[in-house]
Design goal:
2 helices; 3-stranded antiparallel beta sheet; Alpha-Beta Plaits; 5 strands; alpha+beta
Length: about 110
């Protein structure tokens, strides 16, 4: 058995991802919605992260050695748009008549 003096625990250095997704100091806080969504994206990509509340507001922290990768993943997420989907065929309905997506008749709906 090893003596307690030989135990080494690596401590990660955590850095905040700025809302602008660029290195440097940020003057604006991270929105709660972005903090939550970005954490989900990073977890899905296998990048560890931590949500934190500091005197500068909300922050999302990642290990320093994964900062660049995390920012690139989040930039890619922000740039992706859904295209090529067929139109839904729905028209804007008035308050009185609502569209029934299943095409079934019910009072007060238009199919």
């Amino acid at each position: 058995m090893k003596p307690a003096d030989d135990i080494h625990i690596e401590q990660l250095e955590w850095v905040a991802i700025p809302p602008e997704l660029k290195p440097g100091l940020s003057l604006q806080p991270l929105a709660r919605k972005n903090q939550k969504n970005w954490a989900l994206v990073l977890h899905a990509r296998g990048i560890p992260c931590q949500a934190a509340q500091t005197d500068r507001g909300r922050q999302l922290l990642v290990p320093a050695d994964q900062f660049k990768t995390a920012c690139e993943e989040l930039k890619n997420m922000n740039m992706k748009t859904v295209t090529g989907l067929p139109p839904t065929g729905r028209k804007k309905a008035s308050q009185k008549h609502r569209i029934n997506p299943l095409g079934l008749y019910s009072p007060g709906t238009v199919s």
